[in-house]
Fold these 4 entries.
Entry 1:
Amino acid sequence: MSLKKIWLKITDKNKYYKYKYEGLRKNKEALFKNKIKNLLEIIEKKIKTKEEISFLHSGHLGDLINALPVIKEISKTKRCNYFIEANKKIPEHIKSENHPFGNVYLSDASVKMVLPLLKRQSYLNIADEFKNQNIDINLNLFRDLPINFNIDSIRWYSHLTGVHPDLSKSYIEADDNKLIKDKIVIMRSLRRQNYLINYKFLSDHKDILFLGLKKEFLDLKKDMSNLKFHDCKNFLEMTEIIKNSKIFIGNLSFGYTLAEGLKIPRLLESNPEFPLVYPNGGKGYDFYYQNHFEKMFKKLYLNN
């Protein structure tokens, strides 16, 4: 921090915030002119001229799925390949102690879990693990964009590519799960929980199933003795179960990302400090407060 910035912070808060804002704005302008402008032009040219386009993504899991609407839109006129990279390290400044894969965006195991789901998508020409294949568009570059990342995260890829699909339409394909259906399905990660919310009012329901990690299940089961757990063999099976659910409930987790892509009846437990995801179309609602949670659950439960 410069001496001027320190001095203004001590002596004049208004001038300090103005000085800080101007500094951030100038840094973003320089980033755009020196790197992003040329990058966007290259991406736009490849989408316009190439007949087959290979995309790279390194995670998080939800980010992989959030890129699908743009890829699906591009696939209407191009052959699209999707390669997933394991073990890319998370920068120190954004690490979380509760991240399921430690210090990497995606583990080897998680890539193996997600590939059956990606291979199921008919609009992907190839879906596979990244092993130094030629890449046309690196979707990880969305992280470099000079934007506020609290916008709806599914729109990041539109701002990277200039492609704007209809987000009210489903973009995940899955078969029906014949063994598990019509459940109230919950997937609630330990990260980004809303401290104003509890699930105790659901304790009288006998048709509730939890998907996800066992430690996440045990955390919620303290408030819901009726909660049952299913350990999915991969994320394609998880998607099939969510597709066949009566209602899906989740916080900002991979499960909600799947429910959003399927456009099934769904409730999103939003976090006041991290409003990164929003329902788009269909019977999707987000909530911050307990009374709204219970009201919207009742509405969906009685009408599905």
Entry 2:
Amino acid sequence: MYNLTPMTSAITHFPNLEVVTALAIFHYLLLFCRIGSAIMLMPGIGETFVPPTIRALLALFITLVVYLPLKDTLPPQPDNLAQLFGLICTEIFIGLFIGSAARMLLAVMHIVGMFASLQSGLSNSVFYDPSQGTQNVSVGTFLTMLSITLLLASDMHHFMLLGIIDSYHTFKAGDLPPVGDFSDFSARLFSDSFRAAFMISAPVMVVGFFMYVAGGIMSRLMPSLQIFFLIVPVQIAVTFLIMALTLSAGMMWYLNFFKEGLSKIFAVG
């Protein structure tokens, strides 16, 4: 008869399979909370026209890919449900912060479209914006969709995904997030986004200002002239001409601004 004592001893000293499985599920869930919440808001992938099922499957797949490299950075399994709930809420909060900050950078082109629409007289020309899920001015919808297309064409979504993964080295899983730093950074990012939108739309706003001045002078010189019906077609044509001349340079500058903004997001804290 064979001696089964060594085999029985090895099985006895082998780690509990249920404990190992529970730890793996916990780590996978913790990774999915941050990665999934960030992807749900990430520009290009987190748009409303992308089905939520596709976004969820993408987040599950990315979590599976990065599980082995990141599992050593994750905290141990908590002892009670309160600690587990706190860890999940913390990871979701960090993911939502990353996704919202990237979404704020995308809103720059929405603001540019609002400025251009006000200067061109097209503020009443609204169109359904699939990225916002609501009605938006036609110029803003065009610029927003153009920026999303350029972000995907320039592989900027790869940079965003790498930033989400690298965030585990900046914001350790299991540690309390720096809420004060998040608030200060969000305020700075909002002001920088508004400043960038003003700079991109500056040519249109300057030309529109001078056209308004010229229209005011003409209305004072010739009060009987219907200046509104005269200047609006010229204003729309000039605005489109200025946008055609400056759109390429503005979008290249915007891509650099977007990348710099993402670098600040993942380096904060």
Entry 3:
Amino acid sequence: MKLALYFTFPYPNRESFIRFFHGSLNHKYDYLELGIPTEFPYYDGPIIRKTHKSAGENYSENLLRETVKEAISKKRKVYTLVYYNHFKKDRKDFLQNLKSMGFSGAIVPDLLTDFFPERFELVDAMNEEGLSLIPFFTSSTPDKIIRDVTGRTDDWIYHGLQPSTGIRVPVSTDLMVNRIRSLCPEREIIFGFGINGPEIIHELKASGADGIAVGSSLIPSMETDDMDSFHREIHMLEEGVYGE
């Protein structure tokens, strides 16, 4: 399995973000997701949602560029999680800037729900800049949409385990993994939204998931400036993902 870590950039402030980001690099993980703050992060759950305001007030494009560069130097692939409103103005410039920073691609959580007619236009625009659109699906995404979108993209897939981050409702991991695997048999599928302990990691691994993405469970440690707790949380994730 693979591990992806998510941070809303640069939460809770620039100095703390830098410390915790550097701390994360002492651990093993494959993908780094950096959320670009937005005014209305309505597809994020309550824990992630509250990070956007402070992150927006502390946002620095130069620091973002430096962060991506350092992550790449440590052999992490870097993706951004960004809402569609960022693409509405000067789309080409925005995409070229993401590429120049070193991002491999983007997850756009509201694309297939609120901007469905624009989906392939964005895929084509990203492909032109050498960026991957990471499809974001949930258990409620219709099969036809999954087939259509995966037919136009070729990187990994982000699948929401729960309705949103920080929310947990009963789910059958076997049914969920088997369904998306049957629709996308050749694709790498990373599950996020609700990964909050070793039990669910074990269930996903046993069901054949390719990896997990985690963000909400890191926030309490960052908010309280508790680096020891931060390291313990990532160590737990490492053990669950890479352990036997």
Entry 4:
Amino acid sequence: MVGSRVLRDLVDVHRYPIDRPDSDGYRRLVERCRGDLAGRGMYELSGFLDSDVVAETAAVLAPRMASESSEQRREHNIYFLDHVDGLAPDHPALTRVQTINHTLCADQLVDTVLIDLYEWPPFREFIAATMEMPVLYLMDDPLARVNVLSYRPGEALNWHFDRSVFTTTLLLQAADEGGIFEYRRELRTEDDPCYDAVGRLIKGDDPEVIQVAVEPGALNVFRGRNTAHRVTTVEGDRERMVAVFSLYQQPGVMFSDDENLGFYGRTAS
């Protein structure tokens, strides 16, 4: 566990002064991130975390990922639902795709900088400011609050929508080839599911898909609930590893035992 002083050395607070909310630099950064969210559906802060620390963290987690991670191998549609009211089973929006990944949970990351960053108040206060939310809370769930996901050669995270309003990730290790983050912003709205547009996306017929070649150490925040996104198939010998931080607008969020069993194959108890 590291303190705030050490975190200020690990996060590039010169470029990204998230620890100085009263500064002009902070206000400019928040406005830039809000502008990117509005214009692109996401913002990316390259080099947010020190490159040596990122490489060291990936090296520490690689053997754990090989021996301790849970594997998720799922055939699913973009909604992760068995059926959608009002849609015929053969509608293109319900096309089945495959996702394979490996996960380390928060209780397997307690000795890493990832937990320290997650629990550092300036981090979540900054994310809240960029999302124009008054406050964000840490998740209480001891497994789900922070995860590291790995995609090995031949594996991918396929098209889906997130359950949360926004998603916060930090890339730890890029693949040799492939493993590219792709997203389609605002593919649906709260009032319109846009099923036909979703079907065109799944068929590869959407010119508005954006590719982002994320570099290790980059912080990415995007609106995941209405933004369809995926990670393309990893190629080469090196796995892709990414940390996912769960922040909520209300305190005390926990997954049920059934949810934890479904996601991780185990419960916290």
